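User: Some background: our group keeps a shared notebook of sequences we're curious about, and every so often someone picks one and asks for a predicted structure to add to the entry. Today it's my turn. The entry only has the sequence so far, pasted here. Could you supply the structure so I can complete it?
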Amino acid sequence: MSNLKIESLTSNSFSHYRTQHHFQRVGEINSIDDLQEYCNWAQENQVNIYIIGNGSNTLFAKKNIQSLILKNKLPKYIKPLGENRVEVSSSVSLMEVLKYCYQNSVDSFYYLASVPATIGGALAMNAGRGRQHKRTIYDFVESVTFFENGSIKTLDNSQIVRDYRQTIFTGVHSKLILSAVFKFEPAEFTESPIVSRQHWAKEHQDNTAPNCGSVFKTANFKILSKLRGMAIGKAMFSAKTTNWILTKSQNSYAILLLIKIAQVLHFVSGQKIELELIVID
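Assistant: Of course. Here's the predicted structure to add to the notebook entry:
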């Protein structure tokens, strides 16, 4: 397989749940050519691809993971284009961009300062403030450049079909966002919006144990609120933050059981529920 390397390893670092799994196939994307070769190899060997940081909160379901897990190691850059326009590579973290914006006195998606994601992941998932606020990272996007089917493509903001926590890139791991061009407007601050958001997160979110943030994209919050504090083994629905599951377990079994309980309660109540997590075998 050319110069690409696929290794087998045991790790708890590929999901924010910090559950430990044995990954049969792990590789790194250091260039576009790498991704194309991995896609060819996966197709020939009938193996699913999953790109870490490509837009999902990840739950690995089994002890042994068969999918080809790829880490986005594309070069990081934040390139000023003039007139408050910036090109950012997909591997750059949200926090790196927010610090750049604050230092240059421009408005930005500061409400994502509490989200441990890359630009690529945030774009793929249409990360934002929540359904009621109707603000997302795409408020600042001019265009997105991505790799698909052997070629590099660029779409303007208006061409990118998206919905709540979903875009044309969500869960599609034959596509890899490479970069985006953002337009940020000048702004004045009396205090750091990054620090303000982090203070808000400390008060309203629950990071007392490993978690992936929101579990469900769509759910009845009256039902979810009744599950607050419910525990199975070392996993529990957060008593503080509705729609979060926390865990101190090395495996995912209890998390999956808690998810199933929520799904069953919604089913018998005739309510809609949809996972935001992507579950990988």
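Suggested note for the entry: DSSP finds six helices and 19 strands in the chain. The radius of gyration is 19 Å.
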